[in-house]
Amino acid sequence: MTKEELIELIASKLKLIRIEADFTHDRMAQVIGVSKRTLVQIEKGRLLPDWSTVIIICALFREQDSLINAIGGDALELAEQLARKELSARKEKTLGGRILWKIVRKNENLILQKNIVSKHFRIVDEDQYRLFSSFNEQEAKERFMELVKQKKNLTPCKHG
Question: What is the DSSP string of 42-97?
Fold first, then answer.
């Protein structure tokens, strides 16, 4: 998924997001920082929101089912991924990816997953914390192997 595709997706779901939040046009426009006229134009498909507005929507409405289902998971994680192209720092806990994520590789401590909607990859640890994200499959697989090797080197040996 690209930034442009995310912008178009958010625009197409904005009315549903607003209704699910039980917001009027006035309230939604105020919350996301656009005029009521702009909001109505976006909802009618005549205008696309700018990137900043998309980020605000992803951040403020990230727990809404309509947004989670449209994105295939955490909308803010995806927006951050698109903005940075790569994350390698430990972030907030994920939901575990049981529904919208396909397991690509797995070992006892790490899971490499691919989102079935956005097609991006991520590595989560046994506690479901995201360690890495990328749209590049080869890069994700290489990082997975590096992290597996690091974990093995950090694990104390058990001698009988």
Answer: HHTTS----HHHHHHHHHHTTT-HHHHHHHTS-HHHHHHHHHHS-B-S--SB----
**CB neighbours of residue 56 within 10 Å:** 17
Residue 61 · residue 67 · CB < 8 Å:
yes
Neighbouring CB atoms inside 10 A of 120's CB total: 21
Report helix, strand or coil for 10: helix
pTM: predicted TM-score of the whole model, two decimal places: 0.59
d(CA 10, CA 3): 11
- Domain 3-84, CATH 1.10.260.40 — does that match? yes
Judge whether 123 and 140 are in contact, CB under 8 Å. yes
- Tens of pLDDT along 25-47? 999 999 999 999 999 999 999 99
Q: d(Cα 133, Cα 90) in Å, to the nearest integer?
A: 10
User: In whole angstroms, what is the distance from residue 139 CA to residue 137 CA?
Assistant: 5
